[in-house]
Amino acid sequence: MKGLAGSVEIEDVSPETVWERLKSDTGSTLVDVRTRAEWTFVGLPDLESVGKEVLAVEWQTFPDSRVDPDFVGKLTTLLDQVGAAKDTEIFFLCRSGVRSEAAAAAMAKAGYTRCRNVADGFEGPLSPDRKRGAVAGWKAAGLPWRQG
After folding, report:
1. Which of 3, 44, 118, 144 is the most buried (most CB within 10 A)?
2. Is residue 131 one of the residues assigned to a domain?
3. Is residue 131 predicted with pLDDT exceeding 80?
């Protein structure tokens, strides 16, 4: 499945496929674009077993939910620090896959050629009992995560 964010096409990739690529491609990286509050209270993917760290950069500021006008600059600086090139495979993650798709499109427009969206994000959609993390997404797939 492919998402369309503006005029840039962003590929959706399942959390399980992302995990396999993070394990097999030493250069690939995961960017979590949720808010600090989400990282702290909901948790973060744990990449320690594959020798990596999640790059955490807010797409929208909390509590006003404005898109950070310097998101591209902040993430570019972090990517440079970890040695990521413009052709590095970069996976973007948010709660459900919407903000991360927009963030991936912004970075694609900035010249990064392999930006991917983590389908269903960290927690996925609401379950019938109105809870997240059980139906789809990183947590529901049983992938490693830790409390912020």
Report:
1. 118
2. yes
3. yes
- Global pTM reads 0.92
Residue corresponding to tokens 């600090």: 36
Return the beta strands (E) in the chain as ranges.
2-5, 8-13, 29-32, 44-45, 55-56, 89-93, 114-118, 145-146
Rounded to 5°, angle at Cα 74 from 68 and 77: 170
* CA–CA separation, 132 and 123 (whole Å): 5
Q: How confident is the model at residue 126 (pLDDT cuts 50, 70, 90)?
A: confident
| pLDDT reported for residue 144 | 97
Tell me the backbone φ, ψ of residue 109, rounded to 5 degrees.
-65, -25
- Considering its fold, how many domains does the chain have in total? 1
Q: Does 111 map to a domain? A: yes
